[in-house]
Design goal:
Number of strands: 8
Number of helices: 8
CATH topology: Rossmann fold
Strand content: 25-35%
Number of domains: 1
Helix content: 25-40%
Radius of gyration: 16 Å
Length: 236
Amino acid sequence: MNPNVNADPAELAKFSDLAHRWWDPESEFRPLHQINPLRLAWIDGLAPLAGKRVLDVGCGGGILSDSMARKGAQVTGIDLSVKALRVAQLHALEAGTSGVEYREVSAEDLAAEQPGTFDVVTCMEMLEHVPDPSSVVRACSQLVKPGGWVFFSTINRNPKSFLFAIVGAEYVLQLLPKGTHEWAKFIRPSELASYCRQADLDLQGTRGMEYNPLTRRYWLSDDTSVNYMIATRRAP
């Protein structure tokens, strides 16, 4: 791998090893399948996707990319895991999803190639897995058109998130494979907001995501203490 690429080889290997299970709703990726309708509805409610040109940064196996294309968007999904991209491409073929394409390219390289191209950019569950999240935020800002929307989701860094997102999710409830996350890489909302301001992205709103292990149900709330999403817009 190019040493200048903003990616952790160990993180890429981790998700590449699981790539064949991306579209199994009972696999390690079950939480992504369960939260996808919630985050899709929030994104579409703020920035209606039909007819828009959309970029999904860190798309993995294409769960969000595919659903945005089904909303009528023209979607490009990018990732640096070749195995995950192949799974995404195969699923699009098997499901007959039109309006979606996948590329192996970093956000930074695509920003240099296609600045100001997209109406909407999404970067979900990725920032906590890269060495320099602020670099990804800058690239997302460069990729979106002036006035366009950029959405991020990640995990807060505090004692509660260690208890819930690592001890609870990975070890007790086993919702995710052990070692999926590193607490030190979690990002406080204030830190992410700072990255966004430095990249000329104006904060438009935040939503937290909560989970009840008894009902096995996720929902959006105002509690951003663990999982959260933020919506931003590029300055016109």
